[in-house]
Amino acid sequence: MTPAASHVPPSRRHRWLALLPVLHALAGVVLANRVQPFVLGLPFFMAWTIAGVLLAALVMAAIYRLDPANRGDTENGADDGPDPRTDA
Fold it and tell me: May I ask which residue range the UniProt record assigns to the signal sequence (predicted)?
């Protein structure tokens, strides 16, 4: 492997956050494979699964916000013009 291939640009490091929901799901097999205790009236595994869905949504929102490709640079006059998907 070349040094350039092993180097991850700083602008892409936030994508590693996407592993958190996967690790949460894998940990659930070992840690949350039980019914009790009940959390808000739900069995523990169901509460764990719902927490994983919420975690995934928050992580994906954070990745979206941290991704430089999603930053609008309209302050510097770098607007690309009208949206080609609209009828104008």
Answer: none
